[in-house]
Amino acid sequence: MTTKYVYLFQEGDANMRELLGGKGANLAEMSKLGMPVPNGFTITTEACNKYYEDGETINEEIQAQIMEYLGKLEAETGKKFGDAQNPLLVSVRSGARASMPGMMDTILNLGINDVVAKTIADKSQNPRFAYDSYRRFIQMFADVVKGLSKKRFEEIIDEVKAQRGIKDDLELTAEDMMTLVERFKEFYQAELHESFPTDPKTQMMEAIEAVFKSWNNERAIYYRRMNDIPSSWGTAVNVQMMVFGNMGEDCGTGVAFTRSPATGENKLFGEFLMNAQGEDVVAGVRTPQSIDQLKEVSPTAYEQFVDICSKLEHHYKNMQDMEFTIEGGKLFMLQTRNGKRTAQAALKIACDMVDEGLINEEEALLMVEPQQLDALLHPMFDPEALKKATAITSALPASPGAGSGQIVFTADEAKEEADSGKKVILVRLETSPEDIEGMAVSEGILTVRGGMTSHAAVVARGMGACCVSGAGDIEMHEEEGYFVVGGKRYNRGAWISIDGSTGNVYGEKIETVPAEISGNFERFMSWADKTRTLKIRTNADTPRDARQAVEFGAEGIGLVRTEHMFFEGDKIKAIREMIVAKTDEQMQAALNKLEPMQQKDFEGIYEAMEGRPVTIRYLDPPLHEFVPTDPEDIKELAKEMNISYDELAQVISGLHEVNPMMGHRGSRLDVSNPGIAHMQTAAIIKAAINVNKAHPEWNIEPEIMLPLIGDLKELQYVKKMVTETADAIIAQNGVELTYHVGTMIEVPRAALLADELAQEAEFFSFGTNDLTQLTFGFSRDDAGKFLPEYYDAKIYENDPFSRLDQKGVGKLIDMAVTLGRQTRPDIKLGICGEHGGDPSSIEFANKLGLSYVSCSPYRVPIARLAAAQAAIKQK
Ligand code: PEP
Ligand code: MG
User: What is the pTM of this model?
Assistant: First the structure.
């Protein structure tokens, strides 16, 4: 049976997203609902995958199907490709399964050639429109299909305007447009050594191929990696009859959201431009009118549009983002999709829709991307500091949040400066998809042009970055490295602050304050907590971090990295004394200094956690991390420690290892230096006894975790040090204290022998950072150097250190869980590697029935929501 690669809109529906892509499936669904959608067909994502399988060629079978469906489209519309009487023009657009705004390419007005342009001019009695469409088509085709620079086309337009002594594009006449068409064609011919294709079928096939190709352009790949979209999905291509928003004053085009994407307010929100084509609104070149004004300009179309918006929102049970065109006063829907929104808006919409009875709490939980919550957890401007600041200009509040940073004018500069640790605000005339990486590293984005739906606004909201757009008062002198506003000059590198919630821009640095969970956020999170079964702990090494995590909803600490406490003040001195100790006495003296300091650290953490469980991990890194490498620093330290430079230098060089991460670290330190395990045990047990005395109701039960264990005998050996010390101290104090000893599963051998380890370990915590490192054999510190080439070659699509490799590392975890439970059915299981805060890894943890995941404090709310979503999906 032959595969069907092409579907008319009438043949599909919203459930066919995988095959037809989001745009295609929704166009089909709107057609099915009887909404005014221009006719068209969709070439499937399977055709895109086949294109790549066949070595980047559209095979004959697919070409034949496309031609067959073009015939059907011609029959449906009564128009014909290239026809001198009634020509058909189409748009060719990409449409992947997940929406990737602005990431891929679109071509409008396809099907125009000299004959067709003349026909359109005659029929529409509007030659300016006909030749405007023609020149736009040449521009887009040259850019998208042939990769010619857009800039030269803009320059040609500027040259023609200069010759005519006009400033505005709208002043260009029909004759000017014809001149542009000719000059564009000449440029095309000169650059490519071929003439511009006149056969619409050739134009279409080349455009379809370009859309397939755009699936693998750099910005699409980057967007996919940022959003966990696999390359195997492919993109569909939609070929749709053109309707024209630029045919005259009763024509127009716009985009709208059923609710505000910035605040979530339940009110139609959008923008339109009369006598314009879609790209004009999105590119932000002309400043559009608000959707409410459409009521006056085109009342019938407005009424119909409002009705369609409401129907679509009820149908999809989600806020919709729509594109429409009005041709001769008649409304056409070109797209609908679930709208991207800020985190604040997402929560408000979710809560409001539950209150309106449109969705239930579980549906509401599934509507918000866990990662999005991050935007709510970051600092806002300190209200006091803000009062003292005066805005230098104000524009559109395109994406909320507060950002303070130094001015940069290009995405590349943003990346460079951010890499060197600076905070930057990216100031652009307008942004384009090439700017995405620079936007991602900026504290905020400020654009001179563009509305609430401009590229900058949409992308910033998606990223959770703050953005102010359309700041038309700013006069840019980007090349010279400054801008002017209110008569004052702001140079590259100067500090500015932007408030994406109010649209204000300040010419100074403004201090920020931490966020808090309240209102809709609090209500929403309470639904998440009710729904999830997985517990969420945090990785915290200080009372401050622990308190922050509790505020964000942490239910315990899954990992205290004790070494992090060793770097401050007197502790680093004591640990260095321990490292250089030559005799047992010297060693013991150093440990005796460390113990009370550690005890105090642990007391602080127990107090901050107010009785919630705390897992403390024993000293883990190789000892060389605690000593200096620079000769000057060694000299200074030797003086401080009262030993000779040579002696200290010798100790330090003795610590050198070829592979320190696979070297003398983790429990191996305790096997060589039992004093460390004894000291850390004493500190933990004494701290717990003390805090329990003050707060008997907390009933602290210390959880002691041994790192990097690889064998049962090793575990028994170190555990014995722990229990001997702990039991002796408990007996000495004459108190009751239950404590637990467990192990991390970080080396593959531990996972393979987990049934044996479970004889001694009361709990396992998967240290997925090391487990990933040792399973792949990738250094966690250096893999970033070569992984990009693996992404390019599509060998790996994600960084396995951020997103758990379920296939390989996950198999080891699954095995260890099964083996561990065989020996000890009630063994407590958790993840404390970085993956503990990653939604897809959390889903995996939930599937295995782990007890908890542990992540950094700022990821706790994200993990709470991800765990709730995992529970719902797994029902
Ligand atoms: C781990 O390896 O996953 C872990 C949590 O330990 P660390 O990152 O401290 O090595
Ligand atoms: Mg580790």
Answer: 0.82
